Amino acid sequence: xxxxxxxxxxxxxxxxxxxxxxxxxxxxxxxxxxxxxxxxxxxxxxxxxxxxxxxxxxxxxxxxxxxxxxxxxxxxxxxxxxxxxxxxxxxxxxxxxxxxxxxxxxxxxxxxxxxxxxxxxx
Length: 122
Hints:
Layout: E1 4-10, E2 16-21, H1 24-32, H2 39-42, E3 47-54, H3 57-68, H4 72-82
């Protein structure tokens, strides 16, 4: 089964967006370049501030839905537990205009997601 990632992006004003993907680098590039119309383009939400990796995409999807159902303060607490300064985690991932390749390795530098059998902590 495919690996999945839950990620949170932020704007300069800290508007946040929670997403899920099986190809984190490509999806972050799409947000960063405002490739698609929608919320992140409208609010310029392009800075990757949170990552959680899951061994299965369906676990990542379930976690994303659980996070999206939480209050904004819970999302902020999750970001700050991993990234207290809200540093841009993808600051050096791309050259301008470069489309990232599909990942081919099974080892990952991204943080592991929480135990998918447990609901998100309060």
